[in-house]
Amino acid sequence: MADYSLGYGGVGSGMDITGMVEQLVAADRKPADNRLNRIESQAKFKLSAIGTVSSAFSTLDTALKALKSATAFDVRTVKSATDTVAAATVSSGTPNGTYNVEVVELATANKWITNTPVAAAQTFGAGQLTLTVGGESLAIDIAEGATLQDVRSAINDAARSKGVQASVLTSNDGQYLSVSSDKTGAANGITLAFTSGGSDLQSLVGSLQERVPAADAVVRIDGLTVTASGNKITEAVPGLTLDLKAKGTSTVTVSTDTAAASKLIQDVVNAYNTAIGAINASTKYNAETDEPSALTGDAQMRSASGQLRSMMGNLLGDLAAQGLDAKTLGLQTKGYPSSDGTLVFDSSKFTAALAADPQKISTAFTGETGFAGTLQKAVGSYIGTDGAFTLRTNGLNAQIKDVTAQRAALDARMEAVGNRYKAQFVAMDALVGQMSSTSNYLAQQLASLSSQTG
């Protein structure tokens, strides 16, 4: 606010010039202030309401995009009748069906252990061993005076990177050398052979016995044999992973995840109802208090609500024409006496329909021309960069910005008005001061004349 203070009152008139100027400026400013406040308040009121509706439409758009996806109903669930034999996991798109699984052999990792104990204090002469891992040979040098622990370390230093580990096992009768592979499968077998050195080193290597062979997993799926180096079978059935646990049989059932599919529909229903509710709340009129809402009577909101309801009616009609009516599908608009345009959904009916004909349901709802794609195009026209609600929001923000600019211009104009009032009052005060001085002078002269004639 401009400062119109003189630092003193009217010298000639005794008037509060500063106070009078401020009151006059405030009186001049008030109509413009009221107009700008009204414009700003209404714009912000509408902006908040449109933001709520736009947010609801964005949520609906997201739900429709998920339902529109070609893989929306490809989510699968899997159950193995005997998890202790073969556990199962599944990904989207795996063929539905029941698979008879027989685990014939589990994949194992090769392990060798010496069968002759070695005293803790025993040492070996210098020599060389050859370790073969999956067809690759490695030379292992043993130093003079090596203990069994030193032999173990030499093997580990040379072969750890190849997935081979040696260890020393201790029992009541002495120590034993163990050499094993970290990798399962027949191709990952290992052998440790004596190459050169003394008889003591030769005897150590010669006493190695295979305790666990290197073997592939063997499983029969619906009578077809599948082998693998590991106990996870991933390529026999697309998207199905079998985790083999033990020899035996199990029945693995892959089916459409009806709960996940039902949730996609329920998400759309919830988002659609929220969008309709947001429009209703922003346009309602309270007859008891005679108070309108932010967008009561708003043409854009009426158009959006009308378009949604009309399109939903058409889409539900199209579904019914395909044999997917409310009784079959469980999806319909709320009926009398609460027919407010919102949807109701019976997930149990939908689940039964999906189980009966999953392809028909998928075709009806997914894709650009399906239920979800058609509705999503209409919803998308209101949001996004060029959406109707976005453009409306941009216009209201511009209006609020313009009010700020008008207030700045009003401040400058009122400052000029105040300075003009101030100059006028100062001039008037000076004139009153002159007149008062003249009056006092005349009064003194008249008093002097009166005393002389007396």
TrEMBL record:
Residues 214-436 form the Flagellar hook-associated protein 2 C-terminal domain. InterPro entries: Flagellin_hook_IN_motif, FliD, FliD_C, FliD_N. The keyword Coiled coil applies. Keywords: Bacterial flagellum, Cell projection, Cilium, Coiled coil, Flagellum, Secreted. Residues 13-109 form the Flagellar hook-associated protein 2 N-terminal domain. Its main location: secreted. It is found in: Secreted; Bacterial flagellum. The keyword Secreted applies. Required for morphogenesis and for the elongation of the flagellar filament by facilitating polymerization of the flagellin monomers at the tip of growing filament. Forms a capping structure, which prevents flagellin subunits (transported through the central channel of the flagellum) from leaking out without polymerization at the distal end. Homopentamer. Belongs to the FliD family. This is Flagellar hook-associated protein 2. It comes from Pseudoxanthomonas mexicana. The lineage of its organism: Bacteria, Pseudomonadati, Pseudomonadota, Gammaproteobacteria, Lysobacterales.
